């Protein structure tokens, strides 16, 4: 925690051009996160070169009550090699539930941890499952997801239904969770490739997500990953469960 241990990518004209603002923002993020980290926490922050963003899909509209975490994905940005790892947690994964009410034996899964204990409690249980703390949390409900799909030019209701579907799969929710991760990877490659996303479009997408990741940092990370040309390296976006 005494200093940054980033291993910068090999110099290139495109990356060097984007590096000063990106690395200034990234360094500020890591320094602030390390300063805030509770030294007694049993869950590690992780590598000094990684940023963990917990992406959650909630089964309600904005401001709903008892929101289940139905889509759970820890997105790890490795800034030493500019790769991305998406670690998915099926909603039915076992988790402890908060005391104070009676539960059925079948209630003890992580989606219910968010609903019965609140979002902060649910996040703490997800962190225990994944084994690393989230530096940032990003959540979307039904209405927000529909807005994102509409902005990206996707069929809204059909896309949401497909991402939530699990009944006809032999392995049910793990397959749904995998499908969601594949969708996230495909969208990342689409948004990071080609002509990229305008600042106006990024502002619009950002406004549809509830997150503690500030816009300036999100934009700096986006620009850095575009400069690193990750869209031409799809194998460097890996999926785990």
Average residue pLDDT? 86
Globally, the shape reads globular
Taking all Cα atoms into account, the compactness measure Rg is 18 Å
Number of strands: 6
Helix content: 40-55%
- Helix count, per DSSP? 8
Measured between the Cα atoms of the first and last residue, the distance is 29 Å
**Uncertain runs:** 1-20
Read across the widest sheet, the strand sequence of neighbours is 5-4-1-2-3-6
Structural class: alpha/beta
Estimated share of beta-strand residues: 5-15%
Largest sheet: 6 strands, mixed
Along the chain, the helix and strand elements come as: HEEEHHEHHHHEHE
List the helices and strands and how they pair.
Blueprint: H1 13-36, E1 50-58, E2 69-78, E3 83-88, H2 110-117, H3 119-130, E4 136-140, H4 142-151, H5 156-164, H6 173-192, H7 199-207, E5 210-211, H8 215-227, E6 237-240
Parallel strand pairs: 1-4, 3-6
Antiparallel strand pairs: 1-2, 2-3, 4-5
Structure explained in plain terms:
The chain is an alpha/beta fold. Helix content is 44%, strand content 15%. The protein contains 8 helices and 6 strands, in the order αβββααβααααβαβ. The chain has helices spanning 13-36, 110-117, 119-130, 142-151, 156-164, 173-192, 199-207, 215-227, and strands at residues 50-58, 69-78, 83-88, 136-140, 210-211, 237-240. A 6-stranded mixed sheet has the order 5-4-1-2-3-6, sandwiched between helices. β2 (69-78) and β3 (83-88) form a beta hairpin. α4 (142-151) crosses α5. The protein is globular and about 50 Å long. The chain starts with 12 loop residues before the first helix and ends with a strand. The model is unreliable at 1-20 (pLDDT under 50).
């Amino acid at each position: 925690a005494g200093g940054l241990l980033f291993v910068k990518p090999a110099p290139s004209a495109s990356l060097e051009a984007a590096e000063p603002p990106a690395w200034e923002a990234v360094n500020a993020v890591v320094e602030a996160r390390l300063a805030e980290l509770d030294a007694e926490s049993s869950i590690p922050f992780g590598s000094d070169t990684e940023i963990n963003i917990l992406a959650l899909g909630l089964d309600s509209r904005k401001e709903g009550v008892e929101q289940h975490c139905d889509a759970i994905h820890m997105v790890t940005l490795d800034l030493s090699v500019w790769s991305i790892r998406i670690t998915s947690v099926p909603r039915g994964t076992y988790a402890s539930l908060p005391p104070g009410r009676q539960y059925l034996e079948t209630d003890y899964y992580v989606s219910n941890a968010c609903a019965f204990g609140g979002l902060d409690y649910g996040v703490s249980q997800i962190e225990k499952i994944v084994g690393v703390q989230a530096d940032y949390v990003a959540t979307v409900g039904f209405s927000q997801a529909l807005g994102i799909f509409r902005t990206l030019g996707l069929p809204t209701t059909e896309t949401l239904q497909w991402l939530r579907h699990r009944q006809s799969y032999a392995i049910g929710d793990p397959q749904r969770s995998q499908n969601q991760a594949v969708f996230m990877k495909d969208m990342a490659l689409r948004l990071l490739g080609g002509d990229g996303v305008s600042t106006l479009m990024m502002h619009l997408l950002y406004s549809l997500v509830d997150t503690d990741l500030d816009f300036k940092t999100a934009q700096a990370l986006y620009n850095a990953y575009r400069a690193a040309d990750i869209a031409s390296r799809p194998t460097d976006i890996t999926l785990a469960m």
